Amino acid sequence: MELDLSPKLAKKVYGDNGGSYHAWCPNELPMLREGNIGAAKLALEKNGFALPRYSDSSKVAYVLQGAGVAGIVLPESEEKVIAIKKGDAIALPFGVITWWYNKEDTELVVLFMGDTSKGHKAGQFTDFFLTGSNGIFTGLTIEFVKRAWDLDDDTAKALVENQTGKGIVKLDANVKMPEPKPEHRQGIALNCEEAPLDTDIKNAGNVVVLDTKKLPFVGQVGLGADLVRLEGNAMCSPGFSCDSALQVTYIVRGSGRLQVVGVDGKRVLETIVKAGNLLIVPRFFVVSKIADPDGLSWFSIITTPIPVFTHLAGSIGAWKALSPEVLQASFNVPAETEKVFRSKRANEAIFFPPPI
Length: 356
Known about the structure:
Organism: Durio zibethinus
Structural class: mainly beta
Radius of gyration: 23 Å
GO molecular function: nutrient reservoir activity
Number of helices: 8
Pfam family, one: Cupin_1
CATH topology of the largest domain: Jelly Rolls
Protein name: Glutelin type-D 1-like
Family: Belongs to the 11S seed storage protein (globulins) family.
């Protein structure tokens, strides 16, 4: 049975007052389970507070909209409180405890993508909440809470029973939360919209690659990531991941056409992608995109911290490396046709401007 590669939207899992949590289901997007990849989104309203939790998976978070504050506690480390805003990528290794808070009028939306190979369910994140109606405290008896934290009955009962919210709550506007510290962002967070561009092709597109040099904690997460922005009607060269990595792509903005070619030269997907879509390209499959007039942007994770891609078209395309005789014989064309083919895209790589 062939896998369904068509892009999907996230579905609401929980949330009401204060915000909501949405996830992609491996039953609807089978490549999540096949690739051991999880994907979800957190949306917080003004004064929305995502209660402290830890996950069974390492992740990369990406802020899609708004601004807020995040608390991060690495194993055997003090809490780091960071300001977050649209374009921020945050590396979240195994064992990290996080909380998220929005004090602004604009909704804060954070995307999570990560590796579930060591998780409880393939293709899904499992979060463990420290507090709330489904938190760790509610599973412990009053006696255990008293003994563990050396508390009296009333204090222990309050800790277990007072927080009735599940996962996300709305705080009173007067509640004061910790202030972020700029130095806490170092190594953990990077704004992709402000970072130096790794590739920038005039009138075509650009890319920022998140690797261990830019974001050291990416190495602990075991994932690579990038933000790609295509100009209107521009094209991203057909290419594939040549190190057996999977590429998980979320469409951040705009829309465009996408084609994926798999085994035996079969076009396994031809579709329109738009903001909010998530898709996964299988290992070694070739993918290419053409933006609609308003442009197309996407954020991807790659299941290796140092990804290697082979592009088939452009000045660095794989075809350029092959000798003329091999190309001529492979395509079964005369030398003149091979020369025309080789002469094209001599000064353009990865992204191609729209036809004049």
